[in-house]
Structures are given as structure tokens and as C-alpha cells.
Amino acid sequence: MTEKTLTTEKKKVFIFDDNLEILELCTEILNDVGCDVKTSPTTTNVEQQIKGYLPDLILMDNWLPDISGIEATRLIKAHEDLKHIPVIYFSANSNISELAAEAGADDYLAKPFDIDQFELTVKKYTST
């Protein structure tokens, strides 16, 4: 596969959020900007879920069933094969910047989010 072929492939984004409306909205927005999207309402076996999809970007909510977004992000960032994947912490918590730093996330996006800001943040990590 040539470098040119790689750049024309759809970027893959994996969203972890237990709110199905958020998952649907984000999927629609990301599809509109040309991304392929996988979603999960749970962080059960988070490493295996990610290995099975190998996304270019991960959006991680804070409050999730099973293990928290902080713990899930730490597992991803500690995994040799996954640590290179950018994680955007994605939460309605008022201290989201602190939570993102605690988790080891690459960036954060507060909910409720502005759609333009959401797209810009995603493009920042999926543009080649």
C-alpha cells in the first residue's frame, strides 16, 4: 500500500459513551466529515475492543459502566500496541481538563459541545 493510498482511507474513530443519544449524534457528525465510526456503551475489555478495530482516534466519556473513563484511558496508554492512539476525554464534568490530565488523555472536549468545535477537535487528530 502506498502512502497516497493510506491518506485516502477513511479515518476510524472509536467512541466510548453510555449515552446512546450522544453515540448516535457523534456518529452522524463523524460520518458527515468522512470518518468510519465504532461505538461502545461500555469499557468491558476495552483493550480487546480497541485492538479489534484499531482506530485513529478514541473519544472517551468519564462515567462509564464497568471501569471509568480514567481507568480505561490509563489502560490504553499503558498498552504497547495502543498507546500511540490519541484519546480525547469527552465529558460533562466541570473539571474535565483535570480529569483528562489525570487519565493521560491527549485532549478533552466538554459536553455539551459545539458541533464546529467537535469537528475541529476530531480533524486535529485525524488529518494526515
What does this protein look like?
The chain is of the alpha/beta class and 128 residues long. The chain has a single domain (10-122), classed as Rossmann fold, CATH 3.40.50. The protein is 43% helix and 20% strand. α5 links the parallel β4 and β5. The radius of gyration is 14 Å and the shape is globular.
Strand content: 15-25%
Distance between the termini: 16 Å
CATH architecture: 3-Layer(aba) Sandwich
Order of helices and strands: HEHEHEHEHEH
In CATH, what is the homologous superfamily? Response regulator
**The CATH topology is what?**
Rossmann fold
Number of DSSP helices?
6
The largest β sheet comes out as: 5 strands, parallel
Radius of gyration, in Å, reads 14 Å
Query: Helix/strand/pairing class, anyone?
Result: alpha/beta
Top-tier CATH class: Alpha Beta
| Strand neighbour order, sheet with most strands | 2-1-3-4-5
What is the residue-averaged pLDDT?
92
Using DSSP, what is the number of strands? 5
Low-pLDDT windows of residues = 1-7
Number of domains: 1
In short:
The chain is of the alpha/beta class and 128 residues long.
